[in-house]
Design goal:
homodimer; 343 residues; alpha+beta; eight-stranded antiparallel sheet; 14 helices; 12 strands; 41% helix; 19% strand; globular
Chain lengths: 343, 343
């Protein structure tokens, strides 16, 4: 059975496009809080799990050894826009470990933040691996490799100690073994492990609460979450969804996008983790899915409600700024109770 | 009933994302050649119908009066990348009518062709409405308004003579009246009219063959198609799908993308028009849909087959150039006969 249509895109009086998807909200014990669609099929979390991929950076002692503060930890957990302060932070991380851009195996793309790319070109510069949105995560892997006394070369290979540790972390957090055949190669060349949405949501619940984790791991997760809550701009950047939500909600919320329509998050005080996947890979729909779920789960005051509405039902404007349509949750996503509360 | 899944995106051993959609192939008399999914629901064709929106430019006499050749007509039918020769062509069109960039109401965006945008920034320039992918269409509207002795101001309004004529053209080509409530505003601010895919496909069959059209309209359509076949780079640009297909197939094929996963085309010698819509609006899937349909319809020799395979089942590479997955038609799209012929 196909997943339900959770998000619609309108133009004029008509629905122009439709997005199916699945949603899992799970607590740290693995109990289902909400499930829509198929939450058992394996899904590549892509960049949504960067904060979990950053656990070895803290647990290995590298973060302390290299004197990393909240900005560096948020960069390791983030998909940055390649804005100047993002790039400077990643350079700082590499320099602390005696490395430079040549050590990065993530590949090169121009900054996601368009004005930063234009400024780079205007200054006669060109893109490097530092501008890759994953360079903070990769700097974190390299620093972890140093602290683990592993070779830095080959740090993206599945057999490298850092990547083996990442897989063990994901299995510990989710409470489920991941078959080797669920390995894919991510856009930045590291292994990415497909997991059921329900397992992903449970992993986020445990990452957010520490329940069921060894004390050292729980403390490392807490430190990474606190860094993202304190410096959300370093997790994404100017005008970006994840930064905006964590700036508003602070430590009450963790959210992180992945490519291909994955979005994960956690509400630490409510003790639950969230994982959504838009079937077709569209991030615009995944953002509506996760905000609609947050609006269902969290008791919102007026200012929270007003803030979230911008993301739950964003207007679509054309190049002249005219509103031509919008994006909205369907009834299948937006429970009648929260719907009537909104209108 | 939801539309069938027509395209899958893979990573490693798994399907990562899925695209549903609908396909209509219709001849000039309206007879169905192929129908997959719901071909009766209204779909905004967006930029896929630019060649039809350019008919008033030719029929009004503007193209002759201003001495437009194949490049200008292809620009009017196209969604260009904002490369320097695209921009120069649009400026030439405006100048011929005594106008300049200030007359364009399409709004501004940076060139779709990233290296051209970077070169523009490097030279200290900034984007203007000339770089908008729709500026050639808009220049065509303005020139048509001049020849029709209408005001150029307000040429994007539904009540303007040029836009009224565009609607009449679409109804004539499709053979079906379009209700006023099916009007939306396009990304470039002109009216866009939602039509059933089956009607759109019929419109393309008539555009491509002239069957059932007044001789003057048939001749105008023929002139626009010939311009696109002769100068396909001006319809899209470097590395772009529509340009690549028309460069290879020449006058044997017309193809044009629209936003939100619409792709239309025609095979003039086979007498049929094609309209596809990816439900979720993803262009990567619409390209696979229309190439798979073309491969089903057209008897392909070895070089055609090899050429099309790049677009029917493209590989996905990451930032390092590693193949990490691919995009492929499902059995619902790729008939078993053509499938076995390919493998």
């Amino acid at each position: 059975m196909p997943n339900p249509i959770l998000v619609e895109v309108t133009r004029g009086n008509l629905v122009e496009s439709r997005h199916g998807g699945a949603v899992a909200v799970v607590d740290a014990d693995g109990a289902t809080v909400l499930a829509l669609g198929d939450v058992a099929a394996p899904v590549f979390p892509r960049s949504a799990i960067k904060a979990m991929q950053a656990l070895p950076l803290v647990e290995s002692g590298a973060a302390d050894r290299f004197g990393f503060g909240e900005e560096e930890l948020a960069l390791a957990c983030g998909s940055h826009g390649g804005e100047p302060a993002h790039v400077a932070g990643v350079e700082r991380m590499l320099r602390a470990a005696g490395l430079d851009v040549a050590a990065l195996a993530c590949g090169t793309h121009w900054p996601l933040h368009q004005p930063s790319g234009q400024a780079l070109a205007r200054a006669g510069g060109t893109a490097s691996a530092l501008h890759n949105n994953c360079s903070g995560k990769h700097a974190g892997f390299l620093c972890a490799a140093c602290a683990m006394r592993a070779e830095t070369g080959g740090y993206v290979e599945p057999a490298h100690p850092v990547q083996r540790e990442v897989k063990a972390v994901l299995e510990d957090l989710s409470g489920a073994a991941i078959p080797d055949e669920h390995r894919g190669i991510d856009g930045c060349s590291v292994p990415n492990w497909a997991m059921p949405l329900a397992d992903l949501a449970r992993a986020f619940a445990r990452f957010a609460t520490g329940h069921g984790l060894a004390p050292r791991r729980a403390a490392a997760a807490q430190r990474l979450r606190a860094a993202c809550a304190a410096k959300p701009w370093f997790v994404a950047g100017t005008g970006r969804f994840d930064s905006a939500l964590m700036e508003h909600f602070g430590a009450r919320m963790f959210v992180k996008a992945g490519a291909e329509g994955v979005h994960c998050g956690a509400l630490p005080d409510l003790g639950c983790g969230i994982a959504v996947k838009c079937d077709d890979g569209h991030g615009r729909a995944a953002e509506v899915m996760i905000t609609a779920v947050i609006a269902r789960l969290r008791r919102l005051d007026g200012s929270d409600r007003e803030f979230l509405a911008r993301f739950t039902s964003p207007a679509l404007r054309n190049w002249k700024g005219t509103v031509v349509g919008g994006i909205r949750p369907t009834d299948a996503l937006d429970a009648p109770s929260s719907r009537s509360a909104r209108t």
